[in-house]
Amino acid sequence: MNAVRIVRNALICDGTGGDLYPGSIRIDGDRIAEVVSNGEISGAKDAEVFDAQGCVVSPGFIDAHSHSDATLLAAPGAFSKRTQGITTEILGNCGHSLFPVTSYNAEQVASDCAAVGVKPSWSDWRDYCEAVDSVHPAVNFAVLCGHNALCAAYPKIKDQCAALDKMLAAGCPGLSSGLLYAPGRTVPPSDLLRLAAVLKHTDAIYTTHLRSEGARLLESLEEAVAFASAGSGRLHVSHFKTAGEANWGKLDAALELLEKARERGLRITADRYPYTYSQTSLSVILPPRYDSMRDREIQEKLSGDPAECERLIEELADSRRVKRAILTAVSKQEFLPYCGLTLEECAVRAGMPSAAAFAVTVLRDDGARAMAAFGGMSPDNLRRILAEPWVCCGTDENARPQDESLGRGHPRSFGAFPLFLKLTAELVGLPEAVRRVTSFPASLFRLKDRGLIKPGCFADLTVFDPAKLDCKADFAHPHTPAEGIVRVYVNGEPTDTGKRAGRALI
Ligand SMILES: [Zn+2]
Question: Minimal CA–CA distance to 423: which of 456, 385, 459?
Fold first, then answer.
């Protein structure tokens, strides 16, 4: 017999963007059976009743841009996600998926998985979904095919096209690209257009981490629009931003470019995390001669070459970017107390002559694992982007346990959704802010019967107190749970029972 649960005394925000209303919800098994405004609900006998005490109940939040591809297998409890109200994540973003796997990329996929203690047992999209499903994750997931993975698995474009075609036919919701990264960044435009042709006559989504989010933002948007025109007519820009102060003035032109493409019939959307700091490897501060080196090679080079270290310290001495960068993650115990500080503050505390000297020391001794946060995004542009009705929320982060056993995340790992709702509700009101994290992303990724509170839909629900919603994580303490989330249901099961009820949305 199905478990019957009731959420009573709630303020229902149903995901459509319509007004909130007081009411109760009856859940039967994994679906919503009844929604009653005002009055009491029927069938309360034998049901588990949760009194929401006037808090808002909305559909569970959908993380449109997640990178939990490996960590959901390693930490299926998805603590960082469910505690911020997320009930579904979209994986396979930025061109990076853990499938397809062939003899060409098996070693690479195995090493990506080994980093979190996972052994790959799959080869294609469906096997991968089944592998994640089999560990019973706490949240639902849907998975895009990553273009970089596709290129790595199949050197020939005709094989890439055939593999993509097969995945789409099997139910994969779309293709993601990461044209900033190898191997995607060197793929000839003619190959990209051949892949776009595979998407034509489907309603598959094309999501992209643009080739440039700063200096060549507009050209990169043009490139993405051209792909969508040749493809399914759908384009979703990942973590949409104007990176670098010199490019903050480009937002008007970027919005106009997208609007013109919409007038030509394209369906264009985006996601954004509600922060102005990005987090990446500390090694990005190094000059271009290091571009082709992996972090471990950089560390090896610097530890054997004191003269090169001196030269780097001189070269980076005046860089404002280096001084202001925040050290966020290291693996060596000795550097841990510096996490959360700017490199300039680190240098003072360590008694070193400059931020550059501190940074080069970390890269020399801990370069393979050192991460830093860089500002460079405009707070005004962030607000303007959040105000757009076609923008949803993405954490751009992994599902993580509360401890740091799988590494240290960006604060958005734990707090992106409460902060997105808080900031967006200030701009456009709570019902619209909730629509943007529920029914809107559900429609983008074809998540059937999700993202709305209505009878027949799956009972993915988030109960929250809008007055308390906030991200309490910062770079010094990134693994701090969000505030304001009261209770989360995934497929009818409350996540606080410890039972993991997420599933593959195929
Ligand atoms: Zn990305």
Answer: 385
